[in-house]
Amino acid sequence: MPKSTFIICEKSYIVRKGLISIIEKIPNTQIVQQFDSEDEMKNLSNIESDFIVINPNLLNKETINILQNAGSPAGSEGNSQFISLSEKSEITDINWVEFININDSQNTILTKLKTLIGNKETNESKSKSQDEISKREVDILKNIALGLSNKEIADKLFISTHTVVTHRKNITRKLGIKTVPGLTIYAILNKIININDTE
Amino acid sequence: MLITKNIKMADVIHMNYFTLSVLNRFGIELGFGDKTVVEVCKKANIDVDFFLEIANAFVDKDYFPKKQLQSFSVKLITDYLRKTHYEYHQIKVPEIENLIEDMVKSGYTDKENLVLLKKFFNDYKQELLNHTQREETVVFPYAISIEDAYNSKTLENSVFDLMETYSISIFQNEHENIDEKLFDLKNIIIKYLPKQKKSENCHKLLYELFSLEQDMIDHSRIEDKVFVPKIRDMEKVITKRFAEKKQ
Known about the structure:
Chain A is α/β, with parallel strands linked by helices. Chain A contains seven helices and five strands.
């Protein structure tokens, strides 16, 4: 399962730190970036994340525009989701999925965040099975294990090298194995190739 | 939490027991009672600023080196790094090899599979050896030459030539993830290795793999946060001196 990633935009150091310590209690989450001013947020457009938690105080014409174009990580669907760091927000240009109040208890905040992460994951697993490698990926894996380069695999299977690279990334993500020798062992253990083929 | 001069050395270990391996590399023995970090270092003849820098970079992934503390010599850093390499090759890797060997003996899984694991780890061992050897034969001598040039009153052209052929940013770029194979090995054992018998050795092996991987991540952080910035700063000063000389 890919990590759920967060960007936090909030002026107060104490609030940021507190929120981070709560988010880090949820397994498989990662804070990719923090911003403490409207100015800083100009750099936000280069960073991808699943969720952006933001204090509406930091919103102005410019930052709203940046947020609306914020992307979520490759492989997951749709754009980043927005969580407001105040109970209500008059700003309707942003499509809020949740509101966190400063007086919320830790459990309330945890429940709110976990629900959002849960929703995201069910949506994704509907669109594609997450951890099982597909038949096409097995083909690719087989050729990697046999020692072929990306280019050779592309030529052999009549696809572009770019596609091979994408498949490889997905295989690594699903199996949790990064190196070619590691993938080779996986292929042998699962009888995708025969041990003698590698000699 | 930041480790400082005046906290007790015992508390450093309580705070994060991974610091034990740092203590080991500094040759600090246990049994220091309530002595503070600075007292223990003094007694063991260790530069306390250097110890603090290494220990903090080791335990805190967000640690930023303090410029005023970086007064110690490059030799001190490379000696420490060499000791770490030595420990990997002489203690940690053989320990893991023994555990894999034990798994073979106890028939944890098909023999064929274990042969695969052994070969995989062997390749990794070679990769690690190449990696540390390159640091010791190329990078460390380069760093020491840079320090000599930095401290020298004269400006030798040979240093200029040296810096044309190598620089610490090359090291930084080629400093690839040596821990990827360890990561794979862990996952293969945890997720994919079919087993026939229960084995405690397998858990021990995993524990050692996790611990080696963690140590290596912390170790590279010392290289990236203490070693590299120090050399880069000296390179900058030397380049500036050459530029002034030309004018």
